Amino acid sequence: MTTLVGARRDLGIYIHVPFCAVRCGYCDFNTYAPGEVEGATREGYVEAALEEMALARRTMQGDDRTVRTVFFGGGTPTMLDSAALTTLLEAVRGTWGLAADAEVTTEANPDSVSRESLQALARAGFTRVSLGMQSAVPHVLATLDRTHNPANVARAVAMAREAGLAVSLDLIYGTPGESLSDWRASLEAAIALEPDHVSAYALVIEPGTRMGGQLRRGEVQPTDPDTQAEMYELADTLLSRAGYAWYEVSNWARSPDQRCRHNVAYWRSQDWWGVGPGAHSYLGPRIGADGAEVPARRWWNVKHPRAYAARLGAGESPEADGEELGADDLRLERVMLRLRLSEGVDAAEVADRPEAVARLVADGLLDGAAAVAGTLRLTRRGRLLADLAVRALAF
Questions:
Q1: Which GO terms describe its biological process (predicted)?
Q2: What is the largest CA-CA distance in the chain?
Q3: What is the mean pLDDT of residues 193-204?
Q4: CB 198 within 8 A of CB 186
């Protein structure tokens, strides 16, 4: 029997579906549009993912935990039909077992779902859909290379509600050419749909993406960082006014039970197995069947779907590389991840940095009253400078 070191951790499963109808110009995720995955099929992907789950079960032999959360990400998971997604979820259930109150999420584009597909997913045990709205403004969607009609968002939300699924909307701010009034329009449109959860991420233009090339050639101009900060503050103001509370720097929920439990598990350093090409996994420290302590470990799979399927088809692990994490590494990650949450991080984690804490409080990045009480919690200003706060406390 495998025994966990420290408090019992939850187990989550992430399933990476690497297919998209088109590749958006800003995207640097491990995704592939039609014509980019020669020699790799969706059917072959499902078979390989099932084989990886069998490998995971062998690797975790003796671990009696059932899965608390499942998250289908991508890519666009709903590029697979509902029968394929159901097959993958059934494999999770058969491999580990699903908790009775498990959260099961799939990401989706507004134009990649139908009433029938959403109802089929709900019957299979999916509880939540995260829709890539990104913007409600046509010229912003065009710059992002998003192909959906903004009206499809409302249609998808209504169909998801009809199926009994919780709804999250994903937004992006800081797109080249997006004004503050454009961003306000997108926020107001999202709030009007009354989702359970909203995520809002600042656009980062990565080298190697199509938009990165446009930036290099001077075809687009990056949004001024001060304007992006104003956009974040506007999001927090409007969402708070509408009844959404922030619980992580980029995430707001209408109530605590509508937070994305799967993502919270990442930020709380729980365990997860990532299935699929390029997926990352993490298992914390535990005691093996032989009584020896097994250190915490993170690893990641080969990226290309063809290489992923070939490895598993040959009975080999799809792992590309990995790393063991010692006590100092785990402490650093606890500070880095938990500081992003509204609950904050225990001040005892950085008891050796009293001057850094005092400076961050004086600069308005940490809540002074909470710090005195023993919890380090970011202020709104601190959320804008979260990376700076982490560097001051943990490095």
A1: porphyrin-containing compound biosynthetic process
A2: 62
A3: 96
A4: no
pLDDT, one tens digit per residue, over 141-190 is: 999 988 788 889 999 999 999 999 999 999 999 999 999 999 999 999 99
CA–CA dist 142, 146 (Å, integer): 6
Domain boundary among 213, 239, 266: 266
Q: DSSP letter for 208, please.
A: T
The CATH number of residue 208's host domain is 3.20.20.70
Taking alpha carbons only, the member of 249, 204, 259 closest to residue 228 is 204
| Boundary (domain end) residue, out of 220, 238, 266 | 266
The whole-angstrom separation of Cα 121 and Cα 43 is 18
Residue whose token pair is 């498990």: 102
Q: Which residues contact 390 (CB under 8 A, 6 or more apart)?
A: 335, 336, 339
Residues 6+ away with beta carbon under 8 Å from 58: none
CB count within 10 Å of CB 87 equals 16
Helix spans in 343-385 (H): 354-362, 368-372, 380-384
Same-domain check for residues 41 and 183: yes
